Amino acid sequence: MPPKKNSQVATNSQLSINRNNSDDYDDDNDNNHILEDDANCRQMICASIQYILVHNSKSQVIKRLEWINTVLRPMANDGRKYFPTIHKHVVKILNDTFGYKLIFDEKHDGYVLINGLKQGSLEHRPLANSNQYSKYALLMIIIACLKRAGGEMTSIDFWGILGETFSIRNDESTRLTINQNKIFGDVQKLIKNDFVKEGYLIFEQAKDFTGDTPTQTVKLAFRAQHEFPDETLEKFIEKIENYEIESDNDVDDNNAMDEDS
Amino acid sequence: LANRQLYTAPDNDELEKKIDQVDQAFAKVKMPREGVLDASTLRTISNLASVRIRAVDEAGSLDRAYDFARKCEKILSKLVGSANEFYEIFGNFHHIAPSCSMMNGRLPTKLFTNEYQEKQKQRAKPVRQQKLTQEELEKSRTRPEEVKEFNSELGEQTIKQIMHIKRCLVERYKAVESSPIDYFEFVIDPKSFAKTVENMFHVSFLIKEGFVNLFQDDVNLPALEPTDKAMNRMASSNSATQGNDSNERANQMIMSITMDEWEQLIEVYNITEAQIPPKNH
Hints:
The structure holds two protein chains of two kinds. By secondary structure, chain A is mainly alpha-helical.
């Protein structure tokens, strides 16, 4: 009977909110109580998890309102009222089952799925799709450079670094010439379009110091700050700097031989 | 812009030298515009100073970013698989949630059936209209209405008035021993110009329908004569053609009258009373 179910859910959600988060055993009991008693609520949780996992593959921010309108509203008349409870269960299930963290972005009113697992010493293979390795390689380099420069830099410096090292120019592709990089492909689309849409970079207009012409600033966006936390990024930079290249070793050997002679 | 890196470098004192130059230049400032330029320069210097202060911070440095990028480029150039191999080696530091590519088939939820149904609606084919048969086409065509009876155009009131005028004309014709009646004397109402025009309008219908003959009399003035049709007489068989000629004369007249002319006609004809009384009378 719908009214009773609503009141049951409301009572259970109030109970679960009032309890301590550290009391895991009681939380599990409450969760099981809710899941067993309210089949509709359980369906909504399952549908929400499916929705988040499928839309995460698009690498875009999962909007909160879209989640409510697409999943909860069609399944219940007062779907919006269930959202706090559903959200709590979804966060717990994603963490317990998959090791994912569902992090909220206030600026975009949406959620991002982050891998919360710590990789062990035997795990060396990354989890991205193999057809996106070059894209994420460029992303890692850009994010590390921005971090080294203090988290932001002007677009002139940004394109200057990329142009000097990887020959990546800030030119649009035209009908006659296609700006394709040998290593990373269509970098314009990747940097200006994909990375911005997916929440890794922000291109912000800022007034120039002379006050005449506006300049653009490149910053790290929400998703980059969570997918590349400071500790992990420092380890990545350290590994890069300690990575030995054969040519460097040959130069060192030659220098040593000269000194000996 | 070329000097920007010079001014923002932490180990360079070019900015301080520039401040001294600006201070010396300010001593010569006399006009407001020069003061504005000085203020703008001071703002630029303060912004560059803030950038230099941030660059001093150990966490951020453009040079360090350049060095890091150069090292990455060296690594990439040495790797056989280039960017793919680079990410395989260093991708462990990327906390990415993998996409659900292991799932097979469509997820059986209402979410996607709704989307599927919406897409189906958008792809719905337009319904073809059935071809009309020849009869239906003929019926649907717009045609002008055929006029079969003239009197159907007129209102009932007008027809009654016309018949009344016909009776008046016949009675008048009998009263003057079957001699033609002057047109103006018959239609003019000395008390109302509008009534005169109405009488002329109604008489024109009588002429058209063949109840009244219009002709020129001996003094070339228009005259009226009721026909056999108005008198309800049958034409004799002997003089059929002659009777037709005398009774049905194909004469036409275009008549116009103004109030001045109406008054003049009343005066000339010395009309004191209308020959067509009101219908109720």
